[in-house]
Design a protein that fits this description.
alpha+beta; 4-stranded antiparallel beta sheet; 4 strands; 47% helix; binds flavin mononucleotide
Length: 193
Protein backbone atom coordinates (compact mmCIF):
# COMPACT_ATOMS: atom_id res chain seq x y z
CA UNK A 1 0.00 0.00 0.00
CA UNK A 2 1.47 3.44 -0.89
CA UNK A 3 2.37 5.67 2.06
CA UNK A 4 -0.40 8.24 1.37
CA UNK A 5 -3.01 5.45 1.36
CA UNK A 6 -1.55 3.99 4.54
CA UNK A 7 -1.71 7.42 6.19
CA UNK A 8 -5.31 8.00 5.17
CA UNK A 9 -6.33 4.49 6.29
CA UNK A 10 -4.81 5.22 9.66
CA UNK A 11 -6.53 8.64 9.86
CA UNK A 12 -9.83 6.93 9.02
CA UNK A 13 -9.30 4.31 11.72
CA UNK A 14 -8.51 7.10 14.20
CA UNK A 15 -11.68 8.95 13.26
CA UNK A 16 -13.78 5.79 13.64
CA UNK A 17 -12.18 5.15 17.01
CA UNK A 18 -12.98 8.70 18.14
CA UNK A 19 -16.61 8.38 17.10
CA UNK A 20 -17.00 4.90 18.58
CA UNK A 21 -15.10 5.69 21.72
CA UNK A 22 -16.98 8.82 22.79
CA UNK A 23 -19.23 8.08 25.76
CA UNK A 24 -21.71 10.15 27.68
CA UNK A 25 -20.00 11.10 30.90
CA UNK A 26 -21.74 10.95 34.25
CA UNK A 27 -18.94 11.36 36.73
CA UNK A 28 -16.27 14.00 36.44
CA UNK A 29 -12.96 14.90 37.96
CA UNK A 30 -13.06 18.20 39.79
CA UNK A 31 -10.33 19.88 37.71
CA UNK A 32 -11.72 22.64 35.51
CA UNK A 33 -11.75 22.68 31.73
CA UNK A 34 -10.10 25.65 30.02
CA UNK A 35 -12.62 28.16 28.72
CA UNK A 36 -10.65 28.43 25.46
CA UNK A 37 -11.09 24.71 24.76
CA UNK A 38 -14.86 25.12 25.09
CA UNK A 39 -14.82 28.12 22.76
CA UNK A 40 -12.70 26.17 20.27
CA UNK A 41 -15.17 23.26 20.41
CA UNK A 42 -18.03 25.64 19.65
CA UNK A 43 -16.12 27.20 16.77
CA UNK A 44 -15.74 23.72 15.29
CA UNK A 45 -19.30 22.62 16.15
CA UNK A 46 -20.83 25.29 13.92
CA UNK A 47 -19.34 23.71 10.79
CA UNK A 48 -22.17 21.20 10.96
CA UNK A 49 -24.44 20.87 7.95
CA UNK A 50 -27.42 23.24 8.10
CA UNK A 51 -30.07 23.52 5.41
CA UNK A 52 -30.23 26.95 3.72
CA UNK A 53 -27.31 28.04 5.91
CA UNK A 54 -29.64 29.10 8.68
CA UNK A 55 -26.91 28.57 11.32
CA UNK A 56 -29.72 28.04 13.82
CA UNK A 57 -27.52 27.29 16.85
CA UNK A 58 -26.89 29.53 19.83
CA UNK A 59 -24.38 28.40 22.45
CA UNK A 60 -24.44 29.65 26.01
CA UNK A 61 -21.13 29.14 27.78
CA UNK A 62 -22.15 29.11 31.40
CA UNK A 63 -19.95 30.99 33.86
CA UNK A 64 -19.82 30.32 37.62
CA UNK A 65 -22.55 32.78 38.56
CA UNK A 66 -25.04 31.43 36.03
CA UNK A 67 -24.02 27.85 36.84
CA UNK A 68 -24.91 28.49 40.44
CA UNK A 69 -28.28 29.88 39.41
CA UNK A 70 -28.99 26.86 37.18
CA UNK A 71 -27.92 24.39 39.87
CA UNK A 72 -30.18 26.03 42.44
CA UNK A 73 -33.01 25.97 39.91
CA UNK A 74 -32.43 22.27 39.17
CA UNK A 75 -32.53 21.56 42.90
CA UNK A 76 -35.68 23.65 43.27
CA UNK A 77 -37.41 21.70 40.46
CA UNK A 78 -36.30 18.43 42.05
CA UNK A 79 -37.79 19.54 45.38
CA UNK A 80 -41.03 20.61 43.68
CA UNK A 81 -41.34 17.23 41.99
CA UNK A 82 -40.00 14.82 44.60
CA UNK A 83 -40.20 16.68 47.87
CA UNK A 84 -37.85 18.77 49.93
CA UNK A 85 -35.58 15.84 50.78
CA UNK A 86 -34.52 15.51 47.14
CA UNK A 87 -33.13 19.06 46.94
CA UNK A 88 -29.75 18.55 48.60
CA UNK A 89 -28.88 15.42 46.64
CA UNK A 90 -29.61 17.16 43.34
CA UNK A 91 -27.52 20.13 44.30
CA UNK A 92 -24.62 17.95 45.41
CA UNK A 93 -24.79 16.00 42.14
CA UNK A 94 -24.63 19.17 40.04
CA UNK A 95 -21.90 20.70 42.15
CA UNK A 96 -19.78 17.78 40.98
CA UNK A 97 -20.05 18.91 37.36
CA UNK A 98 -17.20 21.22 36.34
CA UNK A 99 -18.97 23.04 33.53
CA UNK A 100 -22.14 23.58 31.53
CA UNK A 101 -23.08 24.66 28.03
CA UNK A 102 -26.59 25.25 26.78
CA UNK A 103 -27.37 24.90 23.10
CA UNK A 104 -30.55 26.39 21.70
CA UNK A 105 -32.09 26.40 18.26
CA UNK A 106 -33.64 29.57 16.92
CA UNK A 107 -37.37 29.16 16.49
CA UNK A 108 -38.95 29.46 13.11
CA UNK A 109 -42.63 29.79 12.20
CA UNK A 110 -42.16 27.04 9.63
CA UNK A 111 -42.49 23.44 10.91
CA UNK A 112 -40.23 21.85 8.27
CA UNK A 113 -37.53 24.44 8.80
CA UNK A 114 -37.80 23.97 12.55
CA UNK A 115 -37.25 20.21 12.18
CA UNK A 116 -34.28 20.76 9.91
CA UNK A 117 -32.81 23.42 12.18
CA UNK A 118 -33.12 21.08 15.16
CA UNK A 119 -31.39 18.36 13.12
CA UNK A 120 -28.58 20.78 12.29
CA UNK A 121 -28.17 21.63 15.97
CA UNK A 122 -27.91 17.93 16.82
CA UNK A 123 -25.11 17.63 14.25
CA UNK A 124 -23.40 20.63 15.86
CA UNK A 125 -23.80 19.04 19.29
CA UNK A 126 -22.09 15.87 18.10
CA UNK A 127 -19.27 17.91 16.55
CA UNK A 128 -18.77 19.69 19.84
CA UNK A 129 -18.80 16.47 21.86
CA UNK A 130 -16.35 14.72 19.54
CA UNK A 131 -13.94 17.65 19.58
CA UNK A 132 -14.03 17.72 23.37
CA UNK A 133 -13.68 13.94 23.63
CA UNK A 134 -10.56 14.11 21.50
CA UNK A 135 -9.24 16.66 24.02
CA UNK A 136 -10.01 14.27 26.87
CA UNK A 137 -13.20 16.00 27.98
CA UNK A 138 -16.45 14.09 28.44
CA UNK A 139 -19.92 15.52 27.97
CA UNK A 140 -23.41 14.53 28.99
CA UNK A 141 -26.26 15.85 26.87
CA UNK A 142 -29.28 16.33 29.11
CA UNK A 143 -32.87 17.25 28.35
CA UNK A 144 -34.59 16.96 31.72
CA UNK A 145 -37.58 19.07 32.75
CA UNK A 146 -35.34 22.01 33.61
CA UNK A 147 -34.73 22.78 29.93
CA UNK A 148 -38.44 23.40 29.39
CA UNK A 149 -38.82 25.61 32.45
CA UNK A 150 -39.38 29.35 31.97
CA UNK A 151 -36.94 30.03 34.82
CA UNK A 152 -34.18 28.27 32.87
CA UNK A 153 -34.69 30.61 29.93
CA UNK A 154 -34.75 33.58 32.28
CA UNK A 155 -31.42 32.56 33.81
CA UNK A 156 -29.92 32.37 30.31
CA UNK A 157 -31.45 35.66 29.26
CA UNK A 158 -33.02 33.75 26.34
CA UNK A 159 -36.45 34.42 24.91
CA UNK A 160 -38.44 31.14 24.83
CA UNK A 161 -40.47 32.48 21.93
CA UNK A 162 -37.32 33.02 19.88
CA UNK A 163 -35.24 29.98 20.91
CA UNK A 164 -35.77 26.43 22.11
CA UNK A 165 -33.28 24.52 24.23
CA UNK A 166 -31.70 21.57 22.41
CA UNK A 167 -29.55 20.45 25.29
CA UNK A 168 -28.08 21.29 28.65
CA UNK A 169 -24.56 19.87 28.32
CA UNK A 170 -22.51 18.89 31.36
CA UNK A 171 -18.80 18.61 30.77
CA UNK A 172 -15.54 17.81 32.49
CA UNK A 173 -12.69 15.34 32.56
CA UNK A 174 -14.28 11.89 32.99
CA UNK A 175 -13.73 9.98 36.22
CA UNK A 176 -15.33 6.85 34.78
CA UNK A 177 -16.04 5.94 31.17
CA UNK A 178 -19.10 3.72 30.78
CA UNK A 179 -18.76 0.60 28.63
CA UNK A 180 -20.10 1.03 25.08
CA UNK A 181 -23.52 -0.34 24.12
CA UNK A 182 -24.98 -0.65 20.62
CA UNK A 183 -27.06 -3.21 18.75
CA UNK A 184 -25.44 -5.41 16.18
CA UNK A 185 -25.01 -3.29 13.05
CA UNK A 186 -26.85 -5.88 10.91
CA UNK A 187 -30.01 -5.09 12.87
CA UNK A 188 -30.08 -1.52 11.64
CA UNK A 189 -28.91 -1.81 8.05
CA UNK A 190 -30.97 -2.66 5.00
CA UNK A 191 -28.84 -3.13 1.90
CA UNK A 192 -31.05 -2.71 -1.14
CA UNK A 193 -30.32 -3.90 -4.69
C1 LIG B 1 -31.43 14.39 22.48
C2 LIG B 1 -30.73 13.67 23.60
C3 LIG B 1 -31.14 13.85 24.90
C4 LIG B 1 -30.49 13.21 25.95
N1 LIG B 1 -30.93 13.45 27.24
C5 LIG B 1 -30.33 12.82 28.26
C6 LIG B 1 -30.75 13.07 29.59
O1 LIG B 1 -31.64 13.87 29.85
N2 LIG B 1 -30.11 12.40 30.58
C7 LIG B 1 -29.10 11.51 30.33
O2 LIG B 1 -28.57 10.91 31.28
N3 LIG B 1 -28.66 11.27 29.08
C8 LIG B 1 -29.25 11.90 28.04
N4 LIG B 1 -28.79 11.70 26.75
C9 LIG B 1 -27.62 10.83 26.53
C10 LIG B 1 -28.01 9.44 26.13
O3 LIG B 1 -28.64 8.79 27.20
C11 LIG B 1 -26.76 8.68 25.67
O4 LIG B 1 -26.27 9.27 24.50
C12 LIG B 1 -27.05 7.21 25.43
O5 LIG B 1 -27.26 6.53 26.65
C13 LIG B 1 -25.91 6.51 24.69
O6 LIG B 1 -24.72 6.60 25.42
P1 LIG B 1 -23.38 7.19 24.74
O7 LIG B 1 -23.64 8.66 24.47
O8 LIG B 1 -22.31 6.95 25.74
O9 LIG B 1 -23.16 6.42 23.48
C14 LIG B 1 -29.41 12.33 25.68
C15 LIG B 1 -28.99 12.16 24.36
C16 LIG B 1 -29.63 12.81 23.33
C17 LIG B 1 -29.13 12.62 21.91
Amino acid sequence: MPQSERESASALADLAELIRGRRSTNLFESRPVARQLILDAIEVARWAPNHRLTEPWRFYVIGPQTADELMLLAAEIEAEQKGEKARAARLARLRGVPGFIVLTVTRSGDALRQTEDYAACCCAAQNMMLYLWQAGVGVKWTTGDIVRDARFYRALGADPLAEQVVGFFWYGYPRIVAPPRRKDVQEIVAELP
